[in-house]
Amino acid sequence: MMDPAQIGPVFDVVGIGANSVDYVYQLPAYPERDGPNAKMRISSHSLSCGGQVATALCTCTAMGLRTKYIGATGTDDNGRRLRDELARRDVDMSDAVIRDVTNQFAVIMVDEQAGERIVLWDRHEGLTLRPRELPPEILMAAHVVHVDDVDQDAAIRAARMARDAGVIVTSDIDRLTPRTEELVSAVTMPVFAEHVPKALTGEADFERALRKLRRLNAGRMCVTLGPRGAILLDGDRVYREPAFQIEAVDTTGAGDVFRGAMIVALLRGDGPEDMLRFANAAAGVSCTRLGAINGVPTLEETMHLMQQAASSA
Fold this sequence. Notes:
Layout: E1 13-16, E2 20-27, E3 44-50, H1 52-62, E4 67-70, E5 72-74, H2 77-88, E6 91-92, E7 97-99, E8 105-111, E9 117-122, H3 136-141, E10 144-148, H4 152-164, E11 168-172, H5 180-186, E12 191-193, H6 196-201, H7 206-212, E13 221-224, E14 230-234, E15 237-241, H8 254-267, H9 272-286, H10 299-312
Parallel strand pairs: 1-4, 1-10, 2-8, 4-6, 5-7, 10-11, 12-13
Antiparallel strand pairs: 2-3, 8-9, 13-14, 14-15
Helix pairs in contact: 1-8, 4-5, 8-9, 9-10
C-alpha cells in the first residue's frame, strides 16, 4: 500500500459509480394502463439528488466518515446541482469528472399509500467513467472502496487495484451483464439486489444461491430483500435479519442507504448480525422520507429506530 503521507488525507470511503438528479412525484395510487388510475393528479412533487454510489457516500458522511466521490457529472443545471449537493454534504468532489453533456436524471413515481415507486431514468453515454480516469493512489490509500455496476470497466479496474492493495471493496450489484461475474470476483464484499443471485445461479432460494456464488467470491456476501430485510453469508454461516417496521413514504434509495450503513458498521468492527441490523435500521429511516439523498439518516436517527424497536419487543 502506498504511503498516505505522499497523497494527502486518507478517505474512509471512496465511491466510484452513478449519481442522479431525481424528479420525485407522489401519486395517490399506483399507476395503471387502464381504469381510474390511468390518469391521476400528482399529490406533490420535489427535486432530489440520488444515484447508487452518491447516496451511499452521503450516508457514510452523515454518520461521520470521510468520503470521496469519483464519477462523471454533466455541465447542465442538474450536474451543477448534484455537485453542489454532494459538496454541501461534505463529500469530496475534487476528482469528479465533468463532461459537456446532460447529467443523469430520473423520474420517480411514488405510491403515497405504500411508498413503493417506479423509476424511469436516462443517462447520456458521454457520462461513462473510463478506467484511466481513476486515481490509483487515492483508491489504494482508502479504507473502503465502494463500486456499483454502472460503469463496469472502471468499477472492475478500481476494485482490483484496491483489493490488491489490501483495501476492502464493497459493491452495489443491481443487474446481470456479461461482466457481472467478473465484478463479483473483483470485490471483497458483494452486496446484491434481491433479483441478482437467482439470475446468476438459477437458484430461487437465497441461501443456496449465495453458496453457489462461492465459486466467484470467498468473502462475505449479502443480499438486500427490501421489506423482508437482508441475508448475509459469512464463511459457512448464514445470517438473516428482518426489516424494521416503519410507515414507508418513499423506498427510493433505501438499498443505497443500506450499503452506506453497512460500510459504517464494517469499519467499526460490528459482527454480521449487528451489521445487518444497523443497515436495515438506516434503510428503514430513509423510507420515512421523500427522496434518495434527502432520506439519508444520521447515526443518531438510526440508533433511535433500533432502540424504539428493542423497547417495544
